Amino acid sequence: MTLVQVNLVNQVAERLAIDSDQLLRSSLESFLRAQLRRVEADMETLRQKYAVQSAKEMDARYSEGTLPEEGTWEDYFRLDHLEYRRRKLIEALDLVN
Questions:
Q1: What mean pLDDT is reported for the chain?
Q2: 13 and 19 in contact (C-beta within 8 Å)?
Q3: Crossing angle of helices 73-96/55-64, nearest 10°?
Q4: What is the DSSP string of the chain?
Q5: The whole model's pTM is what?
Q6: Is residue 96 scored above 90 in pLDDT?
């Protein structure tokens, strides 16, 4: 963190009469949880759209021929990326807690 960022955290913590480490951890946790909720909501939208539980299942449906590739590949890659992002957010939350 830059000196400006450290000073800002310390100033806010002082105004709220809480420990700066607690403020930083709580803030990070809140941010990560909000990001996780957004990612999970986007994932659920795609899962419902294609009646699948994961990108892996979507890929299996491509292989089976039960899901047309045309017009769905972008959503497949989006779901795959969201699953990756979810894993990374959970890892980050584990670090904060």
A1: 96
A2: yes
A3: 160
A4: --HHHHHHHHHHHHHHTS-HHHHHHHHHHHHHHHHHHHHHHHHHHHHHHHT-SSHHHHHHHHHHTSS-STTTHHHHHHHHHHHHHHHHHHHHHHHH-
A5: 0.89
A6: yes
